[in-house]
């Protein structure tokens, strides 16, 4: 970090301490209660904010950390507006759930509260088919697609080249997604996709078997900064299911090519649909010199790259979003100075541990992470005594924990990844291994 950026960071930290005291007693309504939303609730609590978490499940873990918690049925926006009105909330914020971004926009509009989304942005990002067609208009390519609807027209079926991925247009995290290698599997996949789609729509795409990437953007007052570009790795141990992430390494080996070939088009897309504030993830594939975007999330991510950004750059996107919800401003972060796609020369990674179906009897290797300065965070979802259900396999519910690593060199990062892959053990009651294999570190970091 250069001296100018360091001075900006130091002065901001002093100002932050004063500003957060001004938020004491304010009421913040947070939509969604999954485990990844807990840190957002905790930050607001630490600022003296009265947090109100609302979600569809009474058992959602983030509710246990809130000042108050409410349930709503399905996606009942009217019920949430009623709660927000009765509680006289000062701000609304969506947690880590794509499905709730449209509700977030409507609740903010009804209460005339700050919202980083607009209905136009929501319309683009909430449905995979709309997002894909919009991207193509700006030269941001999506995965090659095959036309098919629920009538399963024989002429359409004859044109499909297997294998393909079948997806609901309005769900994420791998939910409702299946890989089909023949027509019988395709028909089953369509049934699964429709069962997991609120709008009863699906798409059929080429099954990409190539490099996976993430492009993470921060927006502030109309300025767009690429906070990080990284390479993602997914499991191939679960054939026929969505390839769940095993982790990622930062920065991406394709960073320069991305800036040259795709970033300008993405900027035009963001500008035209009106993004001014917030955080956005684009997920994409890289194959034979071309980038293909396949998903987006206009909110904090379950992958939580913001934890690496905070450790390296000093600013916290969660704090920025909380401020925006209560004031309409993300604060005084100077993205031009403080954000750096190249991570100031550091090497970083997220390491996911995925579990097979079964009951967790013993976990080893996670008890001394606070003594390792290379581990800047560890977000654990499951614990001893929990059971991994069959329906969790093939989506992010099978994640035991996500570990966040920052190192000074590529070789140090490789050694650290290998150490934890070998150290962490998860056993069932019969002593069987519940962990899936991790990714190939040497291949990921281009080491011999």
Sum up the structure in keywords.
four-stranded parallel beta sheet, globular, alpha+beta, 25% strand, single chain, 448 residues, eight-stranded antiparallel beta sheet, 15 helices
Helix content class: 25-40%
Measured by DSSP, the beta-strand proportion falls in 25-35%
Dominant shape: globular
What is the tally of helical segments?
15
Compute the separation of the termini in Å: 31 Å
Largest sheet: 8 strands, antiparallel
User: pLDDT average, as an integer?
Assistant: 91
Strand order of the largest sheet: 13-12-9-10-11-14-19-17
Contiguous uncertain segments of 5+ residues: none
Radius of gyration: 22 Å
Overall structural class, as computed from helix and strand content, comes to alpha+beta
Q: How many strand units?
A: 20
Give a structural overview:
This protein has 448 residues and is of the alpha+beta class. The protein is built from 15 helices and 20 strands. The strands form five sheets. An eight-stranded antiparallel sheet has the order 13-12-9-10-11-14-19-17, sandwiched between helices. Helix 3 crosses helix 4. The chain is globular and about 60 Å long. 44% of the residues are buried.
């Amino acid at each position: 970090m250069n001296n100018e950026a360091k001075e900006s960071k130091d002065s901001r930290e002093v100002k932050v301490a004063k500003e957060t005291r001004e938020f004491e007693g304010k009421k913040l309504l947070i939509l969604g209660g999954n485990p990844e939303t807990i840190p957002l609730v905790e930050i607001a609590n630490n600022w003296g904010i009265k947090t109100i978490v609302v979600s569809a499940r009474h058992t959602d873990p983030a509710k246990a950390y809130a000042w108050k918690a409410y349930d709503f049925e399905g996606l009942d926006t009217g019920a949430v507006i009623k709660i927000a009105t009765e509680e006289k909330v000062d701000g609304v914020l969506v947690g880590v759930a794509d499905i709730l971004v449209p509700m977030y926009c409507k609740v903010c509009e009804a209460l005339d509260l700050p919202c980083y989304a607009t209905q136009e942005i929501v319309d683009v990002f909430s449905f995979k088919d709309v997002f894909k067609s919009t991207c193509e208009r700006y030269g941001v390519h999506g995965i090659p697609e095959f036309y098919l609807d629920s009538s399963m027209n024989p002429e359409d079926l004859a044109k499909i080249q297997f294998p393909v991925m079948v997806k609901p247009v309005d769900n994420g995290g791998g939910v409702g997604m299946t890989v089909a290698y023949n027509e019988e599997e395709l028909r089953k996949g369509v049934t699964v996709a429709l069962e997991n789609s609120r709008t009863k729509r699906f798409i059929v795409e080429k099954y990409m078997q190539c490099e996976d990437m993430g492009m993470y953007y921060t927006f502030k007052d109309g300025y767009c900064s690429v906070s990080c570009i990284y390479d993602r790795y997914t499991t191939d141990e679960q054939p026929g299911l969505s390839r769940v992430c095993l982790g990622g390494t930062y920065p991406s080996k394709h960073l320069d090519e991305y800036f040259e070939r795709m970033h300008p088009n993405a900027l035009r897309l963001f500008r035209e649909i009106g993004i001014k504030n917030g955080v956005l993830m684009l997920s994409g594939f890289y194959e034979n010199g071309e980038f293909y975007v396949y998903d987006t999330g206009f909110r904090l991510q379950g992958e939580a790259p913001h934890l690496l950004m905070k450790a390296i750059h000093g600013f916290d996107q969660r704090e920025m979003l909380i401020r925006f919800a209560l004031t309409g401003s993300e604060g005084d972060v100077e993205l031009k100075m403080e954000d750096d796609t190249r991570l100031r020369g550091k090497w970083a990674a997220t390491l996911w541990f995925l579990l097979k179906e079964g009951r967790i009897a013993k976990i080893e290797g996670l008890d001394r992470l606070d003594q390792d300065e290379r581990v800047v965070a560890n977000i654990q979802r499951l614990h001893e005594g929990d059971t991994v259900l069959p329906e969790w396999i093939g989506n992010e519910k099978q994640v035991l924990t996500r570990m966040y690593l920052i190192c000074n060199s590529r070789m140090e990062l490789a050694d650290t990844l290998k150490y934890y892959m070998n150290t962490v053990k998860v056993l069932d009651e019969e002593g069987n291994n519940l962990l899936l294999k991790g990714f190939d570190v040497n291949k990921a970091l281009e080491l011999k």
